[in-house]
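If your schedule permits, I should be very grateful for your opinion on a structural question. Please examine both parts with care and let me know of anything in them that strikes you as inconsistent. The record follows directly beneath this note:
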Amino acid sequence: MMAAFFSVGMFAAGTATTVYYTAGADVIGTYTVKLNVHMGCNDGDDWKQYDMSKTDKTYGSDPIYKAEFTDYWNGLCTIQFQLYDGSTWKSQDEVFNGSWHGVDGYNGKMYVHSSKEWVEADSQPGDCTIGSQPFLGCDGGASAYANTFKVCAPTGVNVVNVQTPGGKEPSIYVNFPAAPITACSLGEGNYDVQGAGLFLHCAAFVQELTDVTVTANNVEYAIKVYRKPNYYLTGTAAFGSWNLSKALPFFGDSIVVDLAVGEHQFKVLPQNDKWDGAMGYAAVNAECSSDGVGSSNDGNVKVTLEEAGKLKIKVADGKLCVIGKFKTETPQPTVNYYLVGSFNDWKLETAEAMVGDSIVREFEAGSVEFKVLPQKTNWDNAKGFAAVNAECSSDGLSGNNGDNVIFTLKEKGNVKIKVVEGKLCITGPFYVPEPQPEINYYLVGTMNNWSVENAIPLVGDSLVANVEAGKYECKIIPKNLAQDWSNALGFAAVNAECSSEGITEGENSNIVVELKEKADIKIKVVEGKLCITGPFAVPAAPTLVNGFYLIGQKGWAVADLSAELLFTANPDKENEYQLNVTLKEDEGIKVVKVENDVIKTWYPDGEGNEYKVDKNHAGAKTIYFQELYNEAWKDFGGHIYIEANPADGISNMTNGMNAQKFIENGQLFIRVNGTIYSVVGQAK
């Protein structure tokens, strides 16, 4: 009963909670990181999922992610750190599961994937935490400095992002506890004094870390100013041998490196922890040219210097402008792929070379079947068709189980075959058959006696049928599922076209509708949900007040409940309810929780464990009920208490005897001449 005890109402304020996580740069890659928590320990308790944001901190060389949320329960039963590729779940770290953990066990802490342990999140080496400001802008009208600097200063020193007055360059304003300021380690012209503060000119910080010492009111302050690199350069030996941790940072939009004669390959990245976002070459303008600059099969920028010298690499409009004294060569066409198929009897040794990743070939009218391979020696890694873009289309193309590409020419003519981003772009005067409607779903239900063999297809994911008035139950299942009902679609995707009014869920998650009159009903699959339209009968509003009811006296269904069986709050005891009712001997009773005319919970849960009213508890009674299990009430299932009638047998037995009544653990006992007897029932 943990979910009932740890309720939102009981802990309305909750705990502001922050959780950190690092899975290692090699694990995370381009994945999205999410925090998934189970707010209670029961199956029906809330699961919450939060996006984790990447911080500017690292654990060693691994990035740190953070999630913030309010923990209303002041504890959780499950924490999962999950990795997603887009919307696809890939893997997770399940830290603990199935038992209660207080919020102090994870609030403000970081879980490390590599060591499978919690650590303090604010104690990482190199973490600029004392008086730390997050990365702040320094634009003041100069956008090149936006979100560029991070400042760490002792407690009491205030850091503000402002612009130096008097039309000077953008600056970081640092205010000290008291004036005067008598010294600053930055060179003259790199700062200005104003009152108890300094304007530190942004142009003074051209490296990743600058230590600044300031003397104010005879107190020396040590300040660190970090500049975030704009880009990182990695590549062959001169650029760190493709080791991201050794990538060369450069500030602003350019870097100049000294290179030896020969070929060099490199990439420019916006970060040094993953390969995403590499810049292509070369923004051709008055300053630079693409002559002598090329790319490798891996998309690396490639240059060959004819003499040792400097190479300038600059980012211009998202492209690389590369400037240097390059050795230019006449490019030779390369053969990366080979064409083999029905036109050469599928012989690899006579496969036709595709120069420059493409080939134009004349074919006779009729059906043609072929493969495009990256080699002439085996059949591995055949390329699929067809990268659809402005140049080509997949209309008229098909394939078979051997990954062959097939097309039919209406007449003799030229066909162009080209590899575009690893896919085949094929153009030609193909014969295009009339499109056949695709059937992805089937309707089955009471209208066809639940026969999968006679299921009604949804052509183009929709179905319009004229149906007689009446009540129907059905399911929509994906094709080729035979008797497997597990993937039946739920109703009803509510949008401008359809509504869920008049549509309900029956047993086994069947969809239930009732037509008021014979009419057309439209069923359509929209984003994996059902949109159902028709003149449906809308069920009446709930007839019962939500709350706790006594059940069993008239039967065991919602229809057997009424207002006189509704418990009311006990004014003398919090979280306890009471009901005045006449109980008959030998009748079975339970208590149920009703929401919107539906029984949600049974007390006690399970079958065959209802309380059987005996002679000692029959008659006009006040029944007491609690949601939480009460050990003292275990004779009535742990949730119900009924005061017992006077026990005649005990009374007769104790006549003329030395008898005493006493209550222990909520149970009534009688001591007669030193012997203790338990009285049937319980003492309130």
